[in-house]
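Morning run. Coffee first, then this:
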Amino acid sequence: MADNGFLDNVISVKDITKTYQMGEVEVQALDGVSFDIQKGEVISIMGPSGSGKSTLMNILGCLDIPTTGEYTLDGENVSKLKDDQLAKIRNRKVGFVFQSFNLLPRASALANVELPLRYGGVNGDRSKRSRQALEAVGLGDRINHRPSELSGGQQQRVALARAMVNEPSILMADEPTGNLDTKSGKEIMELILEMNRTHGTTVIIVTHDPSIAAQTQRVIRLRDGLLETSV
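And here it is:
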């Protein structure tokens, strides 16, 4: 468990709701959720299917905005921003790791890691920074391999390197060990926690696995779109 001594809130959500219109039916995915996350914290989000975890993750990661309520990220109210504004914030502040890796199948590990830098308009040292990111996750000798030439654990390492190459202040991981064997899952969690310790990265992990949640500092539990506990 990390303890970096950072006390500033990097995330603050206040009474956020999210309502989806499914034909003539309104679905309340989130129903007045409020909490703060401090800079450098390692948080897990848990809850049964349909509890609102994915919806909350999308809002925290600036992939979506709440229907009502306020979401403040690094002191900026992002609750009502447009898609292009959200995209700029995502690229600058947030790194994502997904259960299914989401790698480009025909691109090398190096090219996959370079993607956020390309989207961010970074020129010149893209290759160098991407190589360093791959070396940091133990794949310095696999930079030219395509995903099909890598194991599941190695693919998730590439995804983690891609998430961190922009040095984001927040890492969001959605079931990052869900498709991995026990050994590979443990290694990925060790890498994530090491990045938190080394860089002070705020980490938010959506998980169904109590053993993963036990490695985080605090668990946010959702049920039926409501905040059940945050301890």
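The first helix runs from residue 53 to 60. Good start to the day.
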